[in-house]
Model the fold of this input.
Amino acid sequence: MELNVILTESFEKWLRTLDYAPSTVYASVRYVENFFFYLKSFEITNLEAVQPQTISGYYQYLQTRKNKRQNGSLSNNYITSNINAIKRFSRYLQETEKPFFEVTVKTQPDKETIKTILDQAEIKALYKACESDILGIRDRAILSIYYGCGLRRSEGRSLNVSDILLREKLIRVREGKGYRERYIPMTSAVRDDLENYIYVAREKIQGFKPVKNEALFLSMQVKRMCGNALIERVHKLAETAGIQKETGLHTLRHSIATHLLQSGMTLEEVSQFLGHSSLESTQIYTHIANVEL
Done:
């Protein structure tokens, strides 16, 4: 099958059908187009000619390519994003019954991936900064999802009320990274926070408009809260708590991962909790946990 615009357009439609974030769709298509350009420079013009060693060669090319925007080489994060896009493309080919290729290369995370970790005293300060009104109850639920359950930004904002299984003390993550569904256990404290939000604060917010919304986190306009709105709430809590560190949703995820390792959980257990596809993504936290100890 020939590498052309029709193929990338079909790939883009497939990504949108699976409800990938618009930014992920845009970046994935651009990365695959760059990959096609690389292939054509070696006179590879059809899918059947792409082999595992072709992908390895492209990975090596990215590692040695100069950064066009600034001095130096491409970051490991940028390279990993390219390879992940090609993995998505490979899965698209396979699921649409087109000639496909295996992507077996293993990428390396940036050493500076983790920028900020909050210690447990700072986490307690964030919770203490939550007011007792509707917004405060919602803020506490946001902390419970992103710190208590360690969800990614997109995973948390995509949650529906039906994904919160209070009786089972589980959270169903339908839109995990790589479109992998998983279940996250919740502590009794997290369950209490979510139960209080769902049956008290959220009920009051939902009552502002007759139209029902299944989203877990609702804005005061009774719409699903976007990622930026969630981040703004965390920023406000950090400011109230007097935390000087740059604090966002991923800061909470990084922090719980570090704290779990410090508490004695194994790397495998933390990896499963975070929804990582391999231990390599989790290992970066081990150094931080040891330093904190």
Summary: The CA atoms of residues 109 and 281 lie 7 Å apart.
